[in-house]
Design goal:
The complex is a heterodimer. Chain A is mainly α. Chain A contains 9 helices and no strands. Among the domains of chain B are: 42 residues; 83 residues, no CATH class; 66 residues, SH3 type barrels (Roll), CATH 2.30.30.830; 132 residues, Lipocalin (Beta Barrel), CATH 2.40.128. Classes of the chains: A mainly alpha, B alpha+beta.
C-alpha cells in the first residue's frame, strides 16, 4: 500500500543530467520509458505514434533538464509533457474522445509468456476495460498507476482540482473492478511466475 | 455519518491525512462490506500493472538525445559568439560615436582604454575620424566577398562510411556539421556542404570539389578499424519481424562479443549455465565477425543460437550464410541485420538485432544478482531452522535470531525493499517406519520389478497426494520492479522480469531442481544396486525432503514438470543399451565415464520459448540447456526407455 518513492533517486539523476552526465538520462529513461510508453499507448490507438510521442516527451525532458527548466520531479514533467502531446495529437487528428463503449485495439507486441497464457487473456480484458472509461478517468488512473504520480501532480497535469482527481481515480477503479468481476474466470493467482 | 466513498481509493494511494487514514482503516476492519470494496479496488489496481509494455526505441532515443546535446552545444557556442560579436560592435559603435561627436579632439586616452580592454588590437581605429571610416568600410567587404578557402580533407566535417560502385554509384557520407547532419547517401553532382560537391565515386573513396579544389575522402579498412567503436561486451540477440509496418522482437539469447582489431568473436553467454558440476564453464563460440572497409560487420555464424537463425534465413535466401550489419559512425547501441523475402507477395522482412546491454542494464542485473544472493542466504537460514525444528518453519523471521542468524539487519524493511514472509504449515507427518515397510524389496521378483512394486504400494497408500506446504520469502524491490521469491524448494527466482530474462530465470530454477534430483537419483542408486528410483514416491522423504522441486516455477504446485526417462533401471545397462540403439559402432570403444555425460536421465516436459529448448539432466548429474533443433530425434529415442 505504501507509495513507492522514486523521487530521491530521480532528483539525483536529474542533478547529474543537469551537469551534463548523459548516462543519467539513460538510467532515467530505463526507469520511465516503459510506464510512460504504456500510458501513451493506452491513450492512443496507434502504437507507432505512441512510441514517437513517448520519445518526444523524454527528449523534451532531456532538453529541459539540461537547460535547468525542470522544477518538479522528472517523472511528473515527463508525464505531463506526454499528456499534453497526446491531447495535441488527438486534437490535431480530430480524434478527441472515442465514443463510449468503443474498444480500442491497443494490443501490441508482448512477451512470449503473456501471449500464450491466461495472463494474456486477462491483460486483453483489462485493456478493453480501460478503453471503455471516460477520458478524464482513464488519464487520472493511468497517471497514478503507470506514472506513479501523486494526486497533486496528476491535478496539475490534467488541470483539475485535487477532489476531482480523487473522484476520477475512485470511479475508474470501481468501473475496472466491475469489468474484472464479470470476467472473473480470467483472474487467477497472478502472483505466480510466468 | 456517510463517508466519501472515494476515501478508500485515496487511502490505497496513501493520499489521506493521518486521521483520515486511521478512520478508513477502522472502517475496513469493522465493516465487512467496506473491506470487500477495498479488496476489489486493490485488485483492480494490481491488475493494471499487467499492462505495462516496454518500448523498443531506447537506443534510438539515446542517439536523438546525443543529437539534441550537440545541437544545444552549437546553440550555446553560437550564442557566445554572438555575444562576443555584439560586444565588439558595441565598442566600435561607441568609438565611432565619440569620433563623430568630438571631431579633431585628441582621443588617445579613450582609444587606449577601449583597445586595451575589449576591442581587438588590430582594429583600425586611428586618431583621425577621416581615416577611421573608410578604413573600416574597406575592411568589411573584402572579408565577406572572398570565397572561403578550401579546407583540407581531414578538416572537412565529413566522414566516408562506404561506397557502392556500379551503374549508379553512391557514397554514404556522415555529415557532422551544418543543417543536414547524419549519414546520408550522395550521388555524383550532389552538394554535400555549401561549396562542396561530389565529383566522382570510386571503390572506398570519393572525390569532392571543395570550393574549386579537388579533395579526396578515403575509407580504408585500416581507418575503419582504428576508428571503429569498441563492440566488446554483452549483447542481446533478438529476432525482428517486420510485417506491413508493424514489428515484433523476440529475445533469442545473449552473446558476449570480444572485439580485437577488425575481428569479433561471439560467445554464447548462456551456454555457461549448462556446465557440469565438475566442468569449468567453457565459453561456446557461436559466431565470428569482421569489420569491413565499407563499415559493415559481417557475421559468420558457426552454431546456435546463430545457426538456428541461419536456418530461418535459409527459408528466405538459400545462399544466406553471412549476416551483414551496417556499422554506424558512433558507438552503436544496436546492430541490425535485415533479410527480405521477395517470393512473398506481401512485404515481409526478417531481421536480427544485436542490442548492447548498456552499463546501466548490466549494473542493474548485477544489483539484482546480489539481491538474489541475499535472499538465497535467508532461504538457507530458513532451511537450517526447519531441519533443527522437526521440519517446522518459523512463524516469523525474528525466530531465526540469534541461533541461525545474528540479526535481520540485511532484511529489515527499507525504502527500497519490502520483505514478505509467508510461513507454510508444518510438513505433513509422514511416518518413516511405514515408508520403510512399504519400500521393502520383494526378493522373489527381479530387482526392477520389485522396485516398481514398492512405488505402486506407496501410491496405493496415498503418498502421491502429499504436497509439501510451501514457505515463501518475497522481497520486492521498487527499481527494478522485481520480486525475488525464495521458497522451501531451495529455489530463489526473480519475478517481474521481462521476456527473455523471465525465461532465463525459470530456466535457471529448473536447472537447479534437476541438479538436486540428479543427486537424489545418485544417492538412491548407491543404496539400491545401481538401480535408479522407480519413481519419486520411493525417494520421499528419505532422499527427497521436499517434493516441490519436482515442479517448475511456471507450473501449478504438485505438477510433475520433469520427464523421468529411466525409472528402476540399472544406470550402466541403461547407458549401454542407449548406445547400442543410438550408435552401435561406438559401443566397442565406449568409455563409461565419458558416456555418462552424454546420456540423459531427465528433462523439462515443456519447451522454453526463448530460445526454444529444454533443460536436460545427464547420467553424470550435469544439467544443460539443449536447443530444440537437437531434441526431436533424441527425444523420441530417449522416451522409449523402459
Amino acid at each position: 500500500m505504501a507509495i513507492v518513492d522514486h523521487s530521491a533517486a530521480e532528483q539525483e539523476l536529474l542533478k547529474r543530467l543537469r551537469k551534463g552526465d548523459v548516462s543519467a538520462f539513460d538510467t532515467l529513461c530505463l526507469t520511465l520509458e516503459a510506464r510512460l510508453f504504456s500510458y501513451v499507448r493506452h491513450m492512443l490507438k496507434d502504437r507507432c505514434e505512441a512510441e514517437d510521442i513517448t520519445q518526444e516527451a523524454l527528449l523534451r525532458l532531456y532538453v529541459a533538464a539540461r537547460e535547468g527548466r525542470v522544477k518538479a520531479g522528472p517523472r511528473a514533467y515527463a508525464f505531463s509533457t506526454a499528456h499534453n502531446l497526446v491531447v495535441d495529437f488527438l486534437r490535431r487528428s480530430c480524434r478527441s474522445a472515442r465514443p463510449e463503449g468503443e474498444v480500442q485495439d491497443v494490443s501490441g507486441p508482448r512477451n512470449e509468456a503473456s501471449q500464450s497464457t491466461e495472463q494474456g487473456m486477462l491483460r486483453e480484458e483489462i485493456e478493453k476495460a480501460l478503453a471503455t472509461l471516460p477520458e478524464t478517468q482513464r488519464s487520472a488512473v493511468m497517471l497514478r498507476e503507470f506514472g506513479q504520480l501523486n494526486y497533486g501532480e496528476i491535478a496539475q497535469a490534467l488541470g483539475a482540482s485535487l477532489d476531482q482527481v480523487k473522484v476520477w481515480i475512485y470511479r475508474a477503479r470501481k468501473s475496472l473492478a466491475q469489468v474484472l468481476d464479470r470476467h472473473g474466470q480470467f483472474i487467477g493467482d497472478q502472483s505466480r511466475g510466468a | 455519518m456517510a463517508r466519501d466513498p472515494s476515501d478508500l481509493s485515496a487511502y490505497l494511494d496513501g493520499e489521506l491525512s493521518r486521521a483520515e487514514s486511521a478512520e478508513t482503516e477502522a472502517r475496513i476492519r469493522e465493516e465487512p462490506e467496506t473491506a470487500k470494496e477495498f479488496k476489489r479496488l486493490e485488485r483492480s489496481r494490481t491488475m493494471l500493472a499487467q499492462c505495462i509494455d516496454r518500448p523498443v526505441f531506447h537506443a534510438n532515443l539515446m542517439q536523438r538525445a546525443n543529437a539534441a546535446e550537440s545541437g544545444m552545444r552549437k546553440r550555446r557556442i553560437a550564442a557566445r559568439s554572438l555575444l562576443a560579436a555584439a560586444a565588439v560592435l558595441l565598442v566600435v559603435a561607441a568609438g565611432l560615436l565619440i569620433l563623430v561627436q568630438w571631431p579633431g579632439e585628441d582621443h588617445t586616452a579613450i582609444d587606449t582604454a577601449t583597445s586595451g580592454s575589449i576591442a581587438p588590437p588590430a582594429l583600425p581605429v586611428g586618431p583621425s575620424s577621416h581615416d577611421a571610416g573608410p578604413k573600416l568600410a574597406a575592411a568589411v567587404p573584402s572579408e565577406t566577398t572572398t570565397a572561403p578557402p578550401a579546407l583540407e580533407s581531414t578538416k572537412l566535417p565529413l566522414e566516408l562510411m562506404g561506397t557502392i560502385t556500379g551503374a549508379s554509384p553512391m557514397a554514404v557520407i556522415d555529415v557532422k556539421e551544418g543543417p543536414k547532419q547524419g549519414s546520408q547517401v550522395f550521388q555524383k553532382g550532389d552538394a554535400v556542404l555549401e561549396g562542396v560537391t561530389v565529383v566522382d565515386i570510386g571503390q572506398n573513396q570519393v572525390v569532392l570539389d571543395n570550393n574549386g579544389q579537388q579533395t579526396t575522402l578515403v575509407c580504408t579498412e585500416e581507418a575503419v578499424t582504428t576508428t571503429a567503436p569498441d563492440l566488446s561486451g554483452l549483447w542481446d540477440l533478438r529476432l525482428v519481424e517486420l510485417i506491413s509496418g508493424g514489428g515484433e522482437e523476440r529475445f533469442i539469447g545473449r552473446v558476449r562479443i570480444e572485439h580485437s582489431g577488425n575481428t569479433l568473436k561471439l560467445y554464447d553467454d548462456e551456454a555457461q549455465f549448462g556446465a557440469g558440476p565438475n566442468q569449468q564453464p567453457a565459453p561456446v563460440l557461436v559466431g565470428e565477425g569482421r569489420i569491413t572497409s565499407g563499415r559493415d560487420v559481417q557475421f559468420t555464424p558457426t552454431m546456435t543460437p546463430f545457426d538456428a537463425l541461419g536456418t530461418v534465413y535459409g527459408k528466405f535466401n538459400a545462399e544466406w550464410n553471412q549476416l551483414v550489419a551496417p556499422l554506424g559512425n558512433r558507438s552503436p547501441e544496436a546492430l541490425s541485420i535485415f533479410g527480405y523475402d521477395d517470393r512473398n507477395p506481401a512485404p515481409y522482412y526478417l531481421g536480427l538485432k544485436l542490442v548492447r546491454l548498456t552499463a546501466n542494464v548490466a549494473q542493474s542485473e548485477q544489483l539484482l544478482a546480489s539481491r538474489i544472493q541475499e535472499v538465497k542466504v535467508m532461504v538457507a537460514a530458513l532451511g537450517r531452522y526447519a531441519s533443527s525444528h522437526d521440519r517446522r518453519y518459523p512463524a516469523k523471521l525474528e525466530e531465526l535470531v540469534p541461533d541461525i542468524v545474528p540479526d535481520l539487519s540485511s532484511f529489515s524493511d527499507t525504502d527500497t525493499r519490502k520483505v514478505q514472509y509467508i510461513p507454510g504449515a508444518t510438513s505433513p507427518n509422514v511416518s518413516l517406519d511405514s515408508f520403510k515397510e512399504l519400500m521393502k524389496v520383494d526378493p522373489s521378483l527381479p530387482y526392477p520389478d520389485a522396485l516398481m512394486k514398492c512405488e505402486q504400494a506407496l501410491r496405493d497408500a496415498g503418498y502421491a497426494k502429499i504436497v509439501y506446504p510451501q514457505t515463501v520469502l518475497k522481497v520486492t524491490y521498487s527499481n527494478p520492479d522485481v520480486t525475488i521469491i525464495g521458497d522451501n524448494r531451495n529455489s530463489v527466482r526473480a519475478e517481474g522480469l521481462q521476456g527473455g530474462s523471465a525465461d532465463a530465470a525459470i530456466r535457471a530454477t529448473c536447472q537447479n531442481n534437476l541438479k538436486q534430483l540428479s543427486l537424489v537419483i545418485k544417492m538412491f542408486e548407491n543404496e539400491h544396486r545401481d538401480y535408479t528410483p522407480p519413481g519419486w514416491l520411493s525417494v520421499y522423504p528419505e532422499y527427497l525432503a521436499d517434493t516441490n522441486i519436482l515442479t517448475s516455477p511456471k507450473d501449478e504446485p504438485g505438477t510433475d514438470s520433469y520427464l523421468y526417462l529411466c525409472p528402476a533401471t540399472n544406470i550402466k545397462e541403461y547407458i549401454i543399451q542407449t548406445y547400442a540403439d543410438l550408435d552401435p559402432a561406438a559401443l566397442a570403444q565406449i568409455d563409461m565415464a565419458q558416456a555418462e555425460s552424454t546420456i540423459p536421465t531427465m528433462m523439462n516436459r515443456t519447451d522454453f520459448p526463448n530460445p526454444a529448448g529444454r533443460n536436460v539432466a545427464f547420467a553424470d548429474g550435469h544439467v544443460t540447456f539443449v536447443h530444440a533443433s537437437q531434441i526431436p530425434p533424441l527425444l523420441n529415442f530417449w522416451s522409449r526407455r523402459p
